[in-house]
């Protein structure tokens, strides 16, 4: 994957979206910044920035995604590939539905996905070092460039959704003691049922990630 590196950007995601709207770049394409001044997180929150962490956005044409991947499952898919990449290097991270990586009870990474025309844009933030008391840092010693290399290699394998999901489903019990945000409200996942497309059924309501 072609990767462009910057010292500082307001947002790697906004920068990449701007390129996609103004140009026709060769894809897949990734944007990485040493520092982000206006990062975007889940539910329109900001992604707290600190130099030394990973600020990444990448774009892939929809036709190049795994053949069985539905767009509403993209956050889970690419988040799980990141989890596996880190896990292979010794990390103890787990994926909290649908797009956050946690160590115990603290978030260390997050992802959001958007569609721009016929392109999927994924924004990723990973804490290599602590930002605030709310968040934690990666539990392994790995260089940013190494992580990108291994992660992109996993993406390029185009592993089928059903293969990724079968492993995530086995690990979903790690979500049972935590919560997620549903309709803007904290929701306990202890009674959630994980469906085959990555959605949840909670109290009879079907919930899709759409992040």
Describe the protein's architecture and organization.
With 211 residues, this protein is α+β, with helices and mostly antiparallel strands. It has a single domain, classed as Bira Bifunctional Protein, Domain 2 (BirA Bifunctional Protein, domain 2, 2-Layer Sandwich). It contains four helices and twelve strands. The longest helix has 15 residues. The two termini are 23 Å apart.
H/E series: EHEEHEEEEHHEEEEE
> What CATH architecture do you see?
2-Layer Sandwich
The main sheet orders its strands as: 1-2-3-7-6-5-4
CATH class: Alpha Beta
Query: Could you give the distance between the termini?
Result: 23 Å
CATH homologous superfamily designation: Bira Bifunctional Protein, Domain 2
Rg, nearest Å? 16 Å
Poorly predicted ranges (pLDDT <50, ≥5 residues)?
none
Quaternary state of the chains: single chain
Helical fraction: 10-25%
Strand content: 25-35%
In short:
With 211 residues, the protein is α+β, with helices and mostly antiparallel strands.
Which key phrases capture this entry?
4 helices, 211 residues, alpha+beta, 31% strand, BirA Bifunctional Protein, domain 2, globular
Topology:
Elements (H helix, E strand, L loop, with lengths): L1 E8 L2 H11 L6 E8 L17 E8 L12 H15 L5 E3 L3 E4 L2 E11 L2 E8 L17 H13 L4 H10 L8 E4 L2 E4 L4 E2 L5 E3 L2 E3 L4
Parallel strand pairs: 1-2
Antiparallel strand pairs: 2-3, 3-7, 4-5, 5-6, 6-7, 8-9, 10-11, 11-12
């Amino acid at each position: 994957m072609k990767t462009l590196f910057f010292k500082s950007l307001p947002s790697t995601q906004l920068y990449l979206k701007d390129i996609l709207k103004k140009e026709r770049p060769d894809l897949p394409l990734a944007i990485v910044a040493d520092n982000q001044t206006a990062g975007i997180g889940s539910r329109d929150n900001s992604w707290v920035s600190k130099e030394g962490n990973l600020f990444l956005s990448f774009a892939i044409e929809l036709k190049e995604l795994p053949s069985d991947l539905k767009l509403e499952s993209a956050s889970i898919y690419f988040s799980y590939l990141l989890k596996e990449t880190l896990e292979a290097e010794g990390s103890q991270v787990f994926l909290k539905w649908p797009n956050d990586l946690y160590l115990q009870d603290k978030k260390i990474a997050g992802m959001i996905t958007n569609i721009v025309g016929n392109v999927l844009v994924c924004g990723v933030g990973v804490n290599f070092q602590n930002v605030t008391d709310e968040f934690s840092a990666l539990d392994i010693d790995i260089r940013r460039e190494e992580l990108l290399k291994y992660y992109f290699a996993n993406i390029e394998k185009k592993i089928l959704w059903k293969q990724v999901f079968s492993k995530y489903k086995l690990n979903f019990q790690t979500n049972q003691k935590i919560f997620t945000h549903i309709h803007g409200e904290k929701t306990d996942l202890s009674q959630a049922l994980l469906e085959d497309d990555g959605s949840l059924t909670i109290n009879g309501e079907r919930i899709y990630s759409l992040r």
